[in-house]
Specification:
The protein is mostly helical. The chain is 52% helix and 5% strand. Strands 1-2 form a two-stranded antiparallel sheet.
């Protein structure tokens, strides 16, 4: 597994409630972080290999190779090209949701249309572009303005 993905996992684990520090929740947090981030910035926060499984999207390398160590430190140097403020905002948003993250992941067409198969990365981005609840329709804002809107809504 690439170091960046491993460190994103450890970073997210350091930000989520203890009862959510499981493979199931980690994979949901990764999926939503990846989708919202990619949609907002046009950049992938990590190289993803999500598959649509029964209980939602699963990042295959994380599922097969990542050892869940909730207190493991992350190497911030491998994340220097990732907007950690945006990752924090997304994770904080997910932490506040009362909604079941498995059920929420099942509402996305990129999961529905690829059940038991790989979900193409561009399809995830497109899906979040359409479903991105942070977007203000018809606003005409893009780039940094869009990121600032997302951050202000999540605060």
């Amino acid at each position: 597994m690439e170091k960046k993905l491993e460190n994103v996992c450890n970073y997210i684990l350091s930000k989520i409630p203890k009862y959510r520090r499981t493979q199931l929740f980690l994979n949901k947090y990764l999926f939503f972080t990846y989708g919202y981030y990619y949609s907002a910035t046009g950049e992938e926060p990590f190289v993803a290999n999500f598959h649509a499984w029964k209980y939602g999207p699963v990042e295959m390398k994380v599922y097969h190779e990542f050892i869940l160590e909730p207190n493991k430190k992350y190497d911030i140097n491998t994340l220097n090209d990732v907007d950690l403020d945006l990752v924090d905002d997304i994770v904080n948003y997910l932490n506040k949701l009362n909604e079941n993250l498995v059920d929420k992941s099942h509402t996305y067409e990129c999961w529905k249309g690829n059940l038991n198969n790989k979900i193409p990365r561009e399809q995830i981005k497109s899906c979040f572009d359409v479903n991105n609840q942070f977007k203000i329709e018809g606003s005409g804002i893009t780039g940094n303005e869009y990121l600032n809107k997302i951050k202000s809504i999540l605060d």
